[in-house]
Design brief:
The chain has helices at residues 12-23, 53-62, 90-110, 112-117, 141-161, 189-202, and strands at 3-7, 27-32, 44-47, 70-73, 83-84, 87-88, 122-126, 167-172, 210-213. By secondary structure, the protein is of the alpha/beta class.
């Protein structure tokens, strides 16, 4: 039985991923900001604010050095209402970067001792094609910039952890019907989560350091 840790696992894609892993017989730990308000979840909910150093350290402490087989950095925010390149809420921009870019790095670093104890551990970062440098639309600049930056974080983690056999991937979940994606999005959380899990299952040291679509296609950075 593998230990799967998912941040932001109380709703949307994270919740669906948790359900799939739990149904497959894995043990699932969910990092959520308010476990007491999360309701019934397919796993054990522990308090975690990915934007706070102390919270990440405390979360790692609650796992008591257990080997983590898969870490899925899924928690994220869409950013402030004003995030045009011509009219930006800079405080909101910084918060978006803190959660979406530094959050996955903060949590991964806090849990490195646990990942190093597992054989063939994997780290997945839920990013977005909106952060691809080959995709030139300009709305939601804070969100886009945070995802472009976290793609580089994923690439750097993959490089630094390659010799330890820990594989890392950045993942595009598609445009999903969640609170963030909205009701008019293309695909259901169930479809996205199933695709993401399949990509993570195939992740290996040979395929580390790449950007993947939920359907398994390789994406341009």
């Amino acid at each position: 039985m593998a230990l799967i840790v998912i941040t932001g696992g109380n709703r949307g894609i994270g919740r669906e991923l948790a359900r799939l892993y739990a149904e497959g017989g894995d043990r699932v730990v969910l990092g959520v900001r308010k476990p007491e308000a999360a309701g019934s979840l397919p796993g054990t909910a522990l308090p975690l604010d990915v934007g706070d150093d102390g919270s990440a350290a405390a979360f790692a402490g609650l796992l008591e050095g257990e080997p983590i087989d898969v870490l899925i950095n899924n928690a994220g925010v869409i950013g402030p209402d004003r995030q045009s390149a011509l009219d930006a809420d800079f405080a909101g921009f910084l918060d978006t970067l803190n959660v979406n870019t530094l959050g996955p790095l903060r949590v991964t670093q806090a849990l490195l001792p646990n990942l190093r104890k597992a054989a063939g551990a994997k780290v997945a970062i839920v990013s977005s094609q909106m952060g691809s440098m080959s995709y030139a639309k300009s709305d939601h600049v804070a969100y886009r910039a945070s995802k472009a930056a976290v793609n580089k974080v994923a690439q750097c983690l993959a490089t630094d952890l390659a010799e330890e056999g820990i594989a890392v991937a950045a993942l595009h979940p598609g445009w999903v019907r969640t609170d963030m994606g909205g009701p008019g999005a293309d695909i259901a959380p169930e479809e996205s989560a199933a695709g993401l899990k399949a990509v993570i299952d195939r992740l290996s040291p040979e395929t580390t350091g790449r950007f993947w679509n939920y359907d398994g296609a390789s994406l341009a950075w």
